[in-house]
């Protein structure tokens, strides 16, 4: 099979990837489409350390090819969105509706592939830049056949992370004000989650002025072009004089996390979505936080995939959630380098690799 394999030096297309046979509780999925998230890029630049060789990609959708004998949740032919949690579905965390806390998957690595005969790791419990992958049945959530898989795949990370951060973690309510720093695939989904929650104003911030149009398309009411000559605190206070109720950091910069705390109104909170290099410390001025302010971490939009993926599909089919508009461009898997280059150039909301050619 074809797949994008990270060997510690480069991510390259290989045609000698194989996936192992199914075990109990697993399903094999033929990928149709896979979004390129910044977390994949972070593996390549060392921000996210991952053992090698590894088959990359974690935001995918496809069609179930085969299921283990004990699997009843999906069957061959079902269209599915994959989730990166790999949660067990039965532990105390899963049972209380917190699958992102499921300890059966966190830090557990598996080598479900071989590349040129050598065992290779699965990335983020999924690996989707490949023709077929084997995942736990709990990671393959069925969706209706009429939703384009090139759009549906983005639910698997960007949509769940961004919209989920607003719905599940922050629980933003109508009239609350927000700043979203970083208008990539994650930030755009935070913006549309805020718009769905009647947040106002929704102030988008990006160093790339070309992101203004898409930020406004997804629901931003204001846009600030960040840069060395721009005082973000002053710029936000011109719009919202006492600061804002919510700041979502969607870049992964400790400097921006510090700035985010300076943007908060009394009672406001920062939600940290960006992923800096492992072990990185951030700082803030403690006394500025006394007026009931908070800093929140958030993994994967605090999502409950079996609940939230069908919800995202329903919102999309009702015309209230933008998925098709997130896809700036599609690329055959052979053009992975082009997709990566265009992400770096700031051209993409999301780039999607297609695998069914
Ligand atoms: N918490 C989670 O579960 C989770 C899930 C997925 C991704 N992430 C992380 O979220 C972050 C964003 O991912 P993405 O896929 O949206 O990335 P992306 O590359 O699509 O977008 C990043 C955006 O940030 C902008 N930017 C860069 N530096 C900036 C600055 N100093 N000020 C303002 N804007 C700036 C870029 O111009 C770009 O528009 C990454 O760190 C990624 O690893 C976290
Ligand atoms: Zn991701
Ligand atoms: Zn569990």
Could you please describe the fold and organization of this structure?
This protein is α/β, with parallel strands linked by helices. The protein folds into two domains: 3-156 and 323-354, Medium-chain alcohol dehydrogenases, catalytic domain (Quinone Oxidoreductase, Chain A, domain 1); 163-298, Rossmann fold (3-Layer(aba) Sandwich). It has ten helices and 19 strands. Strands 4, 6, 7, 10, 11, 18 and 19 form a seven-stranded mixed sheet that branches. Helix 10 (336-344) links the parallel strand 18 (327-332) and strand 19 (350-354). The model has no long low-confidence stretch (mean pLDDT 96). The site of nicotinamide-adenine-dinucleotide (NAD) has 32 residues, from helix 1, helix 5 and strand 13.
End-to-end CA span? 12 Å
CATH architectural name of the largest domain: Alpha-Beta Complex
| Named CATH topology of the largest domain | Quinone Oxidoreductase, Chain A, domain 1
User: Biggest sheet, open or closed, and with what strands and sense?
Assistant: 7 strands, mixed
Percentage of residues in helical conformation: 10-25%
Bound molecules: nicotinamide-adenine-dinucleotide, zinc ion
- The overall number of domains is 2
Poorly predicted ranges (pLDDT <50, ≥5 residues)?
Answer: none
Oligomer: single chain
How much is the average pLDDT?
Answer: 96
Portion of residues in beta strands equals 25-35%
* Strand element count: 19
């Amino acid at each position: 099979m074809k797949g994008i394999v990270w060997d510690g030096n480069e991510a390259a297309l290989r045609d000698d990837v194989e996936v192992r046979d199914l075990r109990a509780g697993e399903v094999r999925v033929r990928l149709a489409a896979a979004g390129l998230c910044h977390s994949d890029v972070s593996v390549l630049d060392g921000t996210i350390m991952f053992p090698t060789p590894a088959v990359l990609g974690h935001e995918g959708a496809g069609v179930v090819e085969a299921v283990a004998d004990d699997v009843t949740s999906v069957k061959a032919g079902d269209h599915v969105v994959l989730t990166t949690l790999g949660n067990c579905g039965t532990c105390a965390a899963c049972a209380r509706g917190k699958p992102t806390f499921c300890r059966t998957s966190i830090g557990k690595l598996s080598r479900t592939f071989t590349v040129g005969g050598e065992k290779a790791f699965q990335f983020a419990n999924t690996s989707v830049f490949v023709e077929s992958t084997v995942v736990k049945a709990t990671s393959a959530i069925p969706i209706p056949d009429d939703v384009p898989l090139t759009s549906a795949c983005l639910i698997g990370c960007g949509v769940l992370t961004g919209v989920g951060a607003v719905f599940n973690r922050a629980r933003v309510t109508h009239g609350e004000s927000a700043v979203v720093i970083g208008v990539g695939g994650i930030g755009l989904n935070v913006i549309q989650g805020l718009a769905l929650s009647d947040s106002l104003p929704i102030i988008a911030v990006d160093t790339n002025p070309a992101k203004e149009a898409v930020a406004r398309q997804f629901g931003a009411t204001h846009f600030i072009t960040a840069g060395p000559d721009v005082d973000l605190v002053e710029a936000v206070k011109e719009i919202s004089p006492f600061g804002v109720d919510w700041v979502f950091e969607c870049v992964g910069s400790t400097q921006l996390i510090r700035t985010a705390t300076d943007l908060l109104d009394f009672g406001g909170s920062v939600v940290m979505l960006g992923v800096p290099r492992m072990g990185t410390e951030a700082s803030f001025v403690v006394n500025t936080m006394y007026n009931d302010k908070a800093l929140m971490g958030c993994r994967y939009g605090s999502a409950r995939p079996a609940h939230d993926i069908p919800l995202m599909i329903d919102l999309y089919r009702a015309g209230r959630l933008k998925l098709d508009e997130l896809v700036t461009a599609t690329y055959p898997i052979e053009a992975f380098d082009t997709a990566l280059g265009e992400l770096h150039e700031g051209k993409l909301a999301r780039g999607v690799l297609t695998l069914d050619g």
